[in-house]
Amino acid sequence: VQLVESGGGLVQAGGSLRLSCSATRSVSSFSAMGWYRQPPEKQRELVAVRTSAGIINYSDTVKGRFTISMDNAKDTVYLEMNSLKPEDTAVYYCNGKLVVNVEGSTVDVWGQGTLVTISS
Q: Are strands 114-119 and 90-99 parallel, antiparallel or unpaired?
């Protein structure tokens, strides 16, 4: 199972970007899918997550600016990022919690990461 991100790049502050995460397996195989980011010299942090039940949570730092969505037909998760700030600069990682047994146990699957750089 692989998650492949795309859409990163260099944008000016105030701009927008949309990240995509395509799964090589049906997104219904995951109990949750989301986005994390790792700013330079900092720890990886949660940005947004969407469960299979449709529950969505955002980090307080992106709430109101970022939107996570899923296209089941394309097995793809998106992160729409608006009103970008220099502090949003980070490597963004797609994450999926792959269900591996009937008990609902999961394993984490990570994408390779995509760099987002916001210039001031």
A: antiparallel
